[in-house]
Specification:
The protein is mainly alpha-helical and 342 residues long. It has a single domain (2-54, 103-167, 195-328), classed as ABC transporter involved in vitamin B12 uptake, BtuC (Orthogonal Bundle). 68% of the residues lie in helices and 7% in strands. The chain is built from 15 helices and four strands. The protein has helices at 2-32, 39-57, 82-87, 89-97, 99-121, 131-153, 173-176, 186-208, 210-220, 222-227, 232-254, 264-279, 284-301, 304-307, 313-328; strands at residues 60-69, 75-81, 169-171, 183-185. The protein has a two-stranded antiparallel sheet with strand order 1-2. The chain has a two-stranded antiparallel sheet with strand order 3-4. α9 (210-220) packs across α11 (232-254). The longest helix is centred in the N-terminal third of the chain and has 31 residues, at 2-32. The two termini are 44 Å apart. Keywords: Amino-acid transport, Cell membrane, Membrane, Transmembrane, Transmembrane helix, Transport. It is a multi-pass membrane protein. This is High-affinity branched-chain amino acid transport system permease protein LivH.
Length: 342
């Protein structure tokens, strides 16, 4: 039982990342009708926003410290981060320690800007083109972004530690009345909570704001909304930027869990598209539901007890579930009637 509960927690962790990326993909497809294969690259760029801010905060000045000597008795050169000089050793070190959460503030304007540039500079020219053309051009863009990141940051994963306050694990066993230990890393719990907060914020924005109501109306009937004199294209451009920001924030907070590397976007991209299709193309609740569902199934399938019965099932379980669901219900779990059913 404790092993199953642990895998469910792992599934919620994976599902959080799947759901956030799939949510952004669904926002773009639902508003613009564009199949964006560069969305995984936005997740990767968000993770490297954490890396970038950490490097900025650790920029140091080198000075001779007379109180420290080498083995010959000569004064040592000591590197001191600028933030420690400006704010003092304790405050400066705290800022560096909390670089990942602080990267949220850094990533939001960066991701919004990248989203606007992508949509205005490239995506808008493919609105009325076939989905095959959209896939090819956005996949090509993803490869370009991946190689740019590889050029500047290298091919090796870059460790990006979480704040010291969240190092360690929380034991769920006493809460559940279990005799054995059920420890789970604090930061993964933080990531799940953060993902839930972002998902709730997106749904609240679409449901309770005038801007969101117009966007939802435009998703249902773009031409009618345009005839009412509303500049729906401008609002959809803003939604593309918001979708990019959601993917970026997912990457920012995922950096301590999986050290950022240049191909991490591609690793999540295919799985996220499967999540979108299973949930239902254009369905935001479906994307979130499918993200958590498939994340939990993937984690449960990784248990040795199950892999010993069906070797390699953890590698294909998501695709098997997707095939079964699409055979039974082509529009996905919560897709609109007629979508992918012609």
């Amino acid at each position: 039982m404790d092993a199953i509960l642990l895998q469910i927690l792992n599934g919620l962790d994976k599902g959080s990342a799947y759901a956030l990326i799939a949510l952004g993909l669904t926002l773009i497809f639902g508003t613009l009708g564009v199949v964006n294969f560069a969305h995984g690259a936005l997740f990767m760029i968000g993770a490297f926003c954490s890396v970038t801010l950490q490097r900025i905060l650790t920029l140091s000045v080198e000075a001779i410290d007379e109180t420290k000597k080498d083995f010959l008795g000569n004064p040592l050169k000591v590197k001191t981060p600028y933030v420690e000089q400006w704010f003092g050793p304790e405050t400066g070190q705290a800022i560096i320690d909390w670089s990942v959460p602080l990267a949220i503030l850094f990533a939001i304007p960066v991701m919004l800007l990248i989203g606007f540039i992508m949509e205005r500079g490239l995506i808008k020219h493919f609105y009325k083109r076939p989905h095959a053309d959209q896939i090819l051009v956005t996949f090509g863009l993803a490869i370009v972004l991946q190689e740019v990141v590889k050029y500047f940051y290298g091919a090796n994963p870059i460790p990006t530690p979480a704040p010291q306050a969240f190092v360690g694990s929380f034991d769920f066993a006493p809460l559940l009345g279990l005799d054995t230990s059920l420890a789970y890393p604090y930061w993964r719990l933080v990531y799940f909570g953060f993902s839930t907060l972002i998902i709730a914020a997106v749904f609240a924005f679409l449901q309770f704001t005038t801007f969101g109501m117009v966007v939802r109306a435009g998703m249902a009937d773009r031409e009618t909304v345009g005839l009412l004199g509303i500049d729906i294209d401008r609002r959809f451009t803003i939604m593309f930027g918001i979708a990019a920001a959601v993917a970026g924030l997912a990457g920012v907070m995922y950096a301590p869990i999986n050290s950022p590397n240049y191909h991490m976007g591609m690793d999540f991209l295919v799985l996220s598209f499967v999540v979108v299709v299973v949930g239902g193309m254009g369905s935001l609740p479906g994307a979130v539901l499918a993200g958590f569902l498939l994340g939990i199934l993937e984690s449960l399938a990784s248990m040795n007890e199950i892999k010993n019965i069906i070797y390699g099932i953890d590698q294909i379980i998501i695709y098997v579930v997707a095939i079964v669901i699409l055979l039974v219900r082509p529009r996905g779990l919560m897709g609109r009637r007629g979508v992918m059913e012609e």
